[in-house]
Design goal:
The complex is a heterodimer of chains A (about 180) and B (about 250). By secondary structure, chain A is an all-alpha fold. In chain A, about 75% of the residues lie in helices and about 0% in strands. Chain A has 11 helices and no strands. With about 250 residues, chain B is an alpha+beta fold. Chain B has helices at about 10-15, 20-30, 35-50, 60-70, 85-130, 145-150, 235-250, and strands spanning about 140, 170-180, 180-190, 195-200, 205-215, 215-225, 225-235. The chains are: A mainly alpha (about 180), B alpha+beta (about 250).
Chain lengths: ~180, ~250
């Protein structure tokens, strides 16, 4: 391996590799699919290898997740630009998400939660995933997403409220799968 | 009416991100703000659901393997045509390097050859099974019926399970021949696509799942409790991985 010397490689394995799950999980939720997430997480990890000399200690998870996030957004801009420009709209999103596959999984509570979470815009989805699934502090979320802590707070607030109403919408419509 | 603190202090309070002084201040506010108190209940519900539902998606084994391969590539052998007197030293060093490389990677290589060969045969069998009229086993979604059908044919306890609730309905089973030995095949259906799970007894130790792709089909192979499993389908790899996890946790 040309980019990393032996010593750096050991450090990379020790500091960064424990966060491969976190990297994949974030990519999975930002891109809403495992196959794309694996490709993009791989690209992000290889970039992390190349940039590793620029990492001078500190929070390795936040450092890696920042790279993963940027790689995901670059990918989304290139492959699904509509998704980034679209603001949350219940009708559009629930319809867009209502593929046979999502309707099949929407049959149970977990499925409904997945569909509801995926109906949020990426910027809301990421703060929820980082906070609730990854257990990041506001400071870490701010570092990963490059947004000020005040904005982290208001994004979380709006994201939680939208998720709540998306779930309530499911409850209202009853079984969406029967439509 | 919405409270001005709902988008800021309320979240910070809920997430335990406020300082001691601000926490105390906000608690005084909560005592007379009906809006924030009500929001707090909703927050607790949404956050609780996200935390208690298994949503976290760990990285697939294949991703780790690709990164490992990038971090630890196989070193190329050094050229040996050095002029005397270094020649013997160079030869010895090259031999040592080759020995180390073989020692480090050969079990892996042999394993990959085995996997590739096995996958080839299993994909062939899967293709045969897709031909109309091939189903010469038992067609039933009843676990008891399928189990009983296999009982006389194999000598180990086949884990016959139905995962219809998770979207993988048991369709039946049959016997097939892979690498000269007869193996049990459980047939599942997912989104209208058949998934064949080949199962046979083995004395090899347990191994984590390995996945691959061949002739347009996805396969996952793993060993557990003296059984080897190989699931094949043209379904989404993630679906195959899910079925693998369901079967594995039921063994």
């Amino acid at each position: 391996m040309s980019e990393l010397e032996l010593e750096d490689r050991a450090r990379f394995e020790q500091l960064v590799m424990p966060h491969v799950d976190a990297a994949f999980n974030l990519a999975r939720w930002l891109l809403r699919g495992r196959a794309d997430a694996e490709d993009v997480a791989q690209e992000a990890l290889l970039r992390a290898c190349r940039f590793f000399r620029g990492f001078h200690g500190g929070d390795a998870r936040a450092w890696l997740l920042q790279i993963v996030r940027n790689t995901c957004y670059t990918w989304l801009e290139k492959n699904r630009p509509m998704e980034l420009s679209m603001e949350f709209n219940e009708e559009i999103h629930l319809q867009a998400c209502a593929t046979p596959e999502t309707l099949a999984i929407a049959g149970d509570d977990r499925g409904r939660l997945i569909v509801a979470l995926e109906s949020l815009p990426p910027r809301f989805r990421e703060v929820l995933v980082l906070r609730e699934l990854e257990g990041c502090s506001y400071k870490e979320i701010a570092a990963i997403t490059s947004i000020p802590i005040g904005t982290v707070m208001s994004s979380l607030s709006r994201a939680r409220r939208q998720l709540y109403s998306a779930l309530a919408n499911f409850a209202h419509k009853g079984a969406v799968r029967e439509v | 009416m919405k409270c001005e603190f709902a988008d800021s202090l309320l979240q910070g309070y809920f997430d335990g991100e406020l300082s001691g002084r601000r926490t105390a201040e906000f608690e005084r506010h909560l005592q007379h703000c009906a809006h924030c108190s009500a929001e707090l209940v909703d927050l607790d519900m949404v956050s609780g659901m996200l935390r208690l539902t298994p949503l976290y998606q760990p990285a697939p084994v294949s991703l780790r393997r690709k990164i490992d391969a990038y971090l630890r590539p196989i070193e190329p052998a050094a050229p040996t045509s050095q002029p005397f007197p270094w020649q013997w030293l160079a030869t010895a060093a090259a031999l040592l390097l080759v020995a180390i490389v073989i020692w480090r990677v050969s079990p892996e290589l042999r394993n990959d050859d085995y996997q590739a060969e096995l996958a080839g045969e299993i994909v062939e069998a899967h293709l045969r099974a897709l031909q109309p009229g091939h189903m010469n086993g038992v067609a039933s979604a009843n676990v008891g019926v399928v189990k009983e059908w296999f009982d006389a044919k194999i000598k180990f306890a086949l884990p016959v399970r139905d995962f219809a609730k998770a979207g993988f309905a048991l369709n039946g089973g049959r016997m097939d021949v892979i690498e000269g030995r007869s193996v049990a095949v459980l047939v599942y259906e997912h989104n209208g696509r058949p998934i064949n799970v080949f199962i046979w007894a083995t004395r090899e130790p347990d191994t984590p799942p390995r996945a691959g792709y061949r002739q347009g089909f996805q396969w996952v192979d793993w060993r557990k409790d003296n059984m080897e499993f190989c699931a094949v389908s043209d379904a989404d790899p993630a679906d195959l991985e899910l079925l693998q996890q369901l079967i594995n946790s039921s063994v």
